[in-house]
Amino acid sequence: MRSGGFQVGGILAFAILGLAHEALAGPAVATRWQQTDMTQDECLKRAEDAISRTGFENLERTGQSRYGSVADYTAAVRCITGNGIVFFIVSGPSLAQANGMAGILFQNFDAGKK
Description:
- This protein is an alpha+beta fold.
- It has one domain: Alpha-D-phosphohexomutase, C-terminal domain (TATA-Binding Protein).
- The chain has helices spanning 8-19, 21-24, 40-53, 95-111, and strands at residues 28-35, 57-61, 65-70, 73-80, 85-92.
- It has a five-stranded antiparallel β-sheet.
- The N and C termini lie far apart (55 Å).
């Protein structure tokens, strides 16, 4: 939002928003994906195992996804085996932390291969 000149109210608003940037920022989201030829049931089982091994709790289930949370972070593994793909998502306040957790989640899913 810009106007022709600087106004005290505008400067004050930007200062306040700058100080509150972390509080107003949305969650960071880190993703991974891989191709798969496994069945939907096999994928969802591995998703649950990977989420648990990564340290996420409060497991939730839908037809295509498994979710878990720990502290301010949420993990999801979405199995779309009919299209041959698995998505891995971790969100939370820190992109660096979410990205690290997504990498571990991805590795734990791969560790479940037979």
